[in-house]
Design brief:
The complex is a heterodimer of chains A (163) and B (519).
Chain A: H1 13-23, H2 30-41, H3 49-56, H4 60-69, E1 81-86, H5 89-92, H6 96-107, E2 113-114, E3 120-125, E4 137-139, E5 142-144, H7 149-161
Parallel strand pairs in A: 1-3
Antiparallel strand pairs in A: 1-4, 2-3, 4-5
Helix pairs in contact in A: 1-2, 1-3, 3-4
Chain B: E1 2-5, H1 10-14, H2 17-30, E2 35-38, E3 52-56, E4 59-63, H3 70-77, E5 88-91, H4 96-99, H5 117-122, H6 127-133, H7 137-147, H8 159-167, E6 175-180, H9 189-196, H10 198-212, E7 216-221, H11 226-241, E8 257-262, H12 272-279, E9 303-307, H13 308-320, H14 322-326, E10 329-330, E11 333-334, E12 336-343, E13 349-354, H15 359-366, E14 376-381, E15 388-390, H16 400-405, E16 414-419, H17 424-438, H18 444-447, H19 449-462, H20 466-483, H21 487-491, H22 493-502, H23 512-518
Parallel strand pairs in B: 1-2, 6-7, 6-9, 7-8, 12-16
Antiparallel strand pairs in B: 1-3, 3-4, 4-5, 10-11, 12-13, 14-15, 14-16
Chain lengths: 163, 519
């Protein structure tokens, strides 16, 4: 009996099936799966929602609802580096708003946008727990304290050079 | 071999501690001296980070803030022998900021290697659990009740009463959940415990589990804390290896498993019922109460939910007794509070003191006044939902009831100072804006009220129909206060109204003094 040629796998398929496989038997697995997909693929593609829902025995609405609820989950590709500048009260008390204005100007993007070269996505964040050394910024997992416009520029320069 | 301590705490890392640790290792190797670098937590003197300590026969000597460039010089000056240098601060324990504290919950933070069970045991660790294992569940709960401990996450609900409810509820499965979604600006004590002494949290959770018969625990950690995640995971693994977690805790035959779950960037998940939904893999929507989580919580089962600091205070209460802990504090605020000094302060950091210390002492004696050198004009205590206090209220003691009397709240003990360049109408608007961004959307006062609130403040500031709009914002705040499902919508009015009442001139209104003079 002739078989249909298999459809080419979607680019996210491996990340999604690995994430489901690793977490489906843990209690309340959806956030675990979404974190794992984003870790493995960089974002959670809308086309993968159906697959995730099927794998966890949830509705597509439930999966989409969770993705859209949390600030961390992204439905589209983003920059190679994520800059999260804190704009909560403690950082505002020592000039965070001016720093944010500088960052937007220097990168030529607004919050939630990526520089044209694909290097940097700028995000706001509401507290990094580094309030005794405000203003603060998180770059990936690297935290910066007592940030000044000059130090911000130095960090960005360095990031543009790293793949 | 000389022990050198260089913190792995996020605050220290944010000022270059990682590079300093590397440079210290390289310099030691090139000089052929035997140095053991221990990555401790932070002492909480953040303006001195990276704070490097050297163990000498006369105790630990501190140097800071150390940069990579200072490292060769420090070696040359003989810092390994505790010798003098321009960065030398003398014996760490004698630094006044530290010496004047009463560290119970933070007793080990900055002193031990956070992920070493041996070090933890050597510094009185696991004595509380050992004692708890010889007691009945009811006796453990009674000890916690006697201590007067109230929820340190902000709500200040008596911990013992919460535990008693879980103990008295029969179920095939119970849970202990630690709320580590420390989202309030100006607070970082949870993070410091998780990065500096995570085993005290593990021990506290284990005691809670044994008291009420829970076998599974979760730490719900915010995703903004990647370094805390790392230390927690290492500490939990170490506790499993030593038999302090798992199926036979300290040979007692009792079981407790513990797992860290990471949030996904939603302030509302710090609200306990939204956190439960998030742990279950759902949108973090606030639940109606009743049922209380203590009766029907995670996956519908009886659940103890406590903040990091509440749970981390339990081991010393079990070890030294509820009466020991209760002897600290004032009024109905018993024990100590790890207070966090932040914002525009010269000496930001962690100050653990018995309840009763005044805001003024904290701002000036510890905080050293403003970082900018300008007068401190307003202080927000208790995070983004806390009131702004003017100078006339700086003598208020840190006591839950004293703050409630001012329509303010102590919350998680965060103190954020602003100098006289602050625009309080901006801060009031920001409070509404933040509420709009982070609202879960379940109840109308919070979901819609916050957006309308920001618009009304804009109109007040622009001078459009000012008196009527002031009336409107007060009315809206009343609706949010009384009609919201949880503290987000219900307490956003605190910063808004306190800004309006204490700093009316920033809204284009007459100051109270001027207004009364004109009458």
């Amino acid at each position: 009996m002739p078989t249909e040629p298999a459809a080419p796998l979607a680019p996210w398929a491996a990340a999604v099936s690995a994430a489901i496989e690793a977490n489906k038997n843990r209690p309340g697995p959806l956030l675990l799966v979404l974190h794992a997909v984003q870790e493995g693929f960089g974002h959670v593609p809308p086309e993968s929602v159906e697959e995730i829902a099927r794998g966890l025995n949830l509705s597509r609405a439930e999966v989409h609802g969770v993705i859209s609820f949390y600030h961390d989950f992204r439905s589209a590709p983003s920059g190679r580096h994520h800059l999260k500048i804190c704009r909560a009260e403690s950082c505002q008390a020592v000039g965070a708003e001016a720093l944010v204005a500088h960052a937007k100007r220097a990168l030529g993007v607004d919050f939630h946008q990526t520089t044209p070269d694909g290097a940097i996505t700028l995000e706001p964040v509401y507290c990094l727990g580094n309030c005794a050394l405000s203003p603060a910024m998180l770059v990936g997992e690297e935290i910066h304290g007592r940030l000044t416009p000059d130090r911000f520029d130095a960090v960005v320069d360095h990031l543009r050079k790293t793949r | 071999m000389t022990r050198v301590y260089i913190p792995r705490d996020s605050g220290a890392l944010s000022m270059g501690a990682e590079a300093v640790a590397r440079a210290t290792a390289v310099e030691a190797a090139s000089r052929n001296v035997d140095v053991s670098i221990i990555r401790n937590g932070s002492r909480g003197l953040y303006w001195l980070e990276p704070l490097v300590e050297v163990e000498t026969p006369t105790g630990r000597i501190a140097y800071g803030p150390v940069t990579v460039r200072d490292v060769p010089e420090l070696f040359k000056a003989g810092f390994l022998q505790g010798k003098s240098h321009r960065l030398a601060l003398g014996p760490t324990a004698e630094i006044p900021y530290l010496k004047k504290q009463e560290r119970l919950t933070f007793a080990r933070v900055g002193i031990t290697d956070p992920v070493s069970v041996e070090d933890y045991e050597a510094h009185d660790g696991y004595r509380g659990l050992r004692k708890a294992l010889s007691m009945t569940g009811a006796a453990i709960v009674e000890e916690v009740t006697q201590s007067g401990l109230r929820g340190r996450g902000g709500a200040a609900f008596p911990t013992g009463i919460k535990w008693k409810t879980v103990l008295g509820t029969t179920a095939d499965q119970k849970y202990v959940v630690c709320n580590a979604d420390e989202g309030d600006s100006g607070t970082f004590s949870d993070r410091m415990i998780m990065e500096g002494d995570p085993l005290v949290l593990v021990e506290g959770m284990t005691i809670a589990a044994i008291a009420v018969g829970a076998t599974q625990g979760y730490i719900y950690l915010r995703s903004e804390y990647p370094h805390a995640l790392r230390t927690l995971k290492e500490a939990i693994q170490a506790a499993y290896q030593k038999g302090y977690l798992g199926s036979n805790i300290m040979g007692s035959g009792k079981r407790f498993d513990l797992e860290v779950r990471v949030g996904a960037g939603a302030y509302i998940c710090g609200e306990e019922t939204a956190m439960l939904d998030s742990l279950e893999g759902k949108r973090g929507m606030v639940r109606f109460k009743p049922p209380l989580p203590a009766i029907a919580g995670l996956f519908g089962k009886p659940t103890i939910i406590n903040n990091v600091i509440s749970l981390a205070s339990v081991p010393i209460i079990l070890d030294k007794g509820g009466a020991f802990y209760r002897d600290f504090g004032m009024g109905r605020s018993r024990g100590t509070l790890p207070i966090q000094l932040a914002g525009n302060l010269k000496h930001g950091g962690l100050v653990e003191r018995a309840f009763g210390v005044t805001l003024r002492e904290l701002l000036y004696d510890y905080g050293g006044g403003s970082l900018s050198g300008r007068p401190i004009r307003a202080v927000q205590v208790g995070g983004p939902l806390g009131a702004y206090l003017p100078e006339s209220q700086f003598d208020t003691p840190f006591d839950y009831e004293a703050f409630i009397a001012l329509n303010a709240m102590l919350g998680h003990g965060g103190v954020v100072a602003f100098d006289d360049t602050v625009d309080m109408a901006e801060m009031a608007r920001y409070a509404m804006e933040f509420c709009a961004i982070e609202s879960c959307g379940k109840c109308t006062p919070c979901r819609i009220g916050s957006t309308r609130g920001a618009e009304v403040i804009d109109r007040i500031v622009a001078g459009t129909d000012r008196d009527r709009n002031v009336e409107l914002i007060r009315d809206l705040c009343d609706t949010m206060l009384n009609g919201s499902l949880c503290a987000l919508g219900g307490m956003t009015p605190f910063p808004v109204l306190s800004a309006l009442n204490h700093f009316p001139e920033d809204f284009g209104l007459p100051t109270p003094a001027l207004a009364s003079a004109g009458r």
